[in-house]
Amino acid sequence: MPEGHAVHRVAREHGAALAGRALVASSPQGRAAAAAARIDGRVLDRVEAHGKHLFYRFDGGAVLHVHLGRYGEFGRFEPPAPEPRATVRLRLADARGGVDLVGPAACALVDPDEEAAILARLGPDPLRADADPELAWARLRGRRSPLGAVLLDQRVIAGVGNIFRAEALHAVGIDPRRPAFALEREEFERLWATVEGMLRRGVEDGRIVTVDAESLGFSRAEIPRALAFRVYGRERCALCDAAVERLDLGGRRTFRCPACQPR
């Protein structure tokens, strides 16, 4: 499942490529035919992201909600438009090109109440100007589960996925098994700032890189994935070379350095 940086990057790219244009909307697969019919020919005003959710806002007030989930992805194309695959849930295009959406968990028009209900289920998104870290702090303080599991709950901090939780906790030196309620205020502030910084770099880079790539002789764009992280997926910690532990938290495997993240 794409983490928050990737979804925000999609919002930025689609806004730049498609906003301000009257778009032809179609659903070759048929599952989004009703939504496509309602937005066909309308001008896309803007695209917004909140955590792992996208909102396409069209003139007249129509809002298309997209959640990629584990298998969803977009494909860009230039003219002449290729024949869409039968699996394309939604195509948005005009004479200058467009995008195809395949395999999303959600793709539907939402009214204001439905949009509000989606947003109410999400925690603050560090990439948004309206993010309220106090809400994340309050929700963390009320949880007894391990912090590493709680960080995957989108109701706490929207946009954090498996890689960011492992890398951010390593960066601030916190064991992922620590109960969430035991997090100190100063630790939370460092964690929030770290997550925000990693997400923002991810938007700019188009990938997740949490090590100093230049010190390894690579640019951030060229560093191999196996070297791009501090502990995620590694056998040994990139900072201290200790053997990395593998833990199952929140239904997903995470990674911990016993030297950098003592219990």
Brief write-up:
With 263 residues, the protein is of the alpha+beta class. The chain folds into two domains: 4-120, N-terminal domain of MutM-like DNA repair proteins; 133-256, Helicase, Ruva Protein, domain 3 (Orthogonal Bundle), CATH 1.10.8.50. Helices cover 29% and strands 20% of the residues.
CATH class of the largest domain equals Mainly Alpha
Poorly predicted regions: none
Q: Quickly count the helices.
A: 7
CATH topology of the largest domain: Helicase, Ruva Protein, domain 3
**Order of strands across the main sheet:** 1-6-7-5
Shape: globular
Return the string of H and E elements. Answer: HEHEEEEEEEHHHHHEE
N/C terminus separation: 29 Å
What's the rounded overall pLDDT mean?
Answer: 97
| Total number of beta strands | 10
Secondary structure class reads alpha+beta
Amount of beta strand: 15-25%
Instruction: Please indicate the count of domains.
Output: 2
Largest sheet: 4 strands, antiparallel
**C-alpha-based Rg, rounded:** 20 Å
CATH architecture name of the largest domain:
Orthogonal Bundle
